[in-house]
Amino acid sequence: MEIKVLKVGIIACSGEELPEGTVSRIACRKVLDELRPGQTVTICLPLFIAGGKEEREFASKFPTITVDGCEKLCAAKSTEKLSGKPTRSLLIPEILKKRGVDLPTRRRHLGIEEKTAGQAVAEEIAKAVDEVLE
Amino acid sequence: MSKSKKQVVVLACSGIGKTFGALGREIAYEVVELLRPGVAVITCLPLLMIEDVDAKKLVTENPVITIDGCPFDCARKSVESIGVTVHKGYRAIDFYKAHKDLKPEGIVELNEAGQKLAATAAEELAEEVDRLVAEGNE
Q1: Total structural domains in chain A?
Q2: At A54, which CATH number?
Q3: A3 lies in a domain?
Q4: How far does the CA of residue B73 sit from the closest CA of chain A (Å)?
Q5: What are phi and psi for residue A72, nearest 5 degrees?
Q6: Is residue A2 part of a domain?
Q7: What region, left, alpha or beta, does residue A67 occupy, with left being phi > 0 and alpha being psi -120 to 50 degrees?
Q8: Whether B105 contacts B113, CB under 8 Å
Q9: Closest chain B residue to the Cα of A77, Cα to Cα
Q10: Which residues of A touch B26 (CB under 8 A)?
Q11: By mean pLDDT, which of A4-13, B36-45, B88-97 is the weakest?
Q12: B50 and A72: CB-CB below 8 Å?
């Protein structure tokens, strides 16, 4: 019997040092709240360390999409190490390059660059959610 | 001769689910960008989860302040998970408890009251930064 997957876990790197980390937060919140509410859930990345068994089993309960702000891939690597291999791994600089969107420059007091980048990344996450749920 | 500690690492919660996580980040940015630039520094908390060499070196060689957004204390525990002791651990909600007139709201961006609360809390953190720097230079 085939079991239909109903929800996808979105895990943002949320890196505090980089503007791309801020974009990962904007984009993930947009997907969770506006683009695919009800089809997506999230967990704070460091909760894999601080949380319990339930948090560690997150990736075994849900197919996961990780969203990283830089090539260090903290979200993808940590998810794989502490919870389970992500179903899809997205990298913000690659998405922005593909869509011809400028790299963000601010970590807070968001400007047009950060909001545009957040929207572009959110749309790509939503597309990946649809593909995983197909 | 004791080792000179000219920097203090301020690590905030990485949470994207709660207002107090956003408040913690905003406080950290206030300190590192406005109040003590160059002295207080920030790094991405998730770098510690992948045991990034540079991030690990930074928190091993300098005093660390954490600001957590919920009782799970992810920031503090992430630092401790690599064998480093946190010099001062804050919970963002405690700043609100001390300033009930400033109710923070929002996750991606804080409301005006949240911004004011972050600025107020950052003053307290900046004093702690000064204390840790002075201690390191004794």
Answers
A1: 1
A2: 3.40.50
A3: no
A4: 7
A5: -70, -20
A6: no
A7: beta
A8: yes
A9: B50
A10: 108
A11: A4-13
A12: yes
Q: Answer yes or no: is pLDDT of B2 > 60.
A: no
Closest approach of B78 to chain A, Cα-based (Å): 6
Query: Which domain does A54 fall in, by range?
Result: 8-133
Q: How many CB atoms lie within 10 A of CB A71?
A: 8
* Residue B18: pLDDT over 80: yes
The reply to whether A54 falls in a domain is yes
More confident residue, B138 or A8: A8
Q: Tell which of A26, A108, A125 to mutate to test the B interface (max B CBs under 10 Å).
A: A108
pTM as predicted? 0.93
Return the SS3 of B93: helix
Cα gap A38→A69, rounded to integer Å: 25
Q: Which residues of A touch B24 (CB under 8 A)?
A: none
Residue A82, domain member (yes or no): yes
Residue B85 has pLDDT above 90, yes or no: yes
The whole-chain average pLDDT of chain A stands at 93
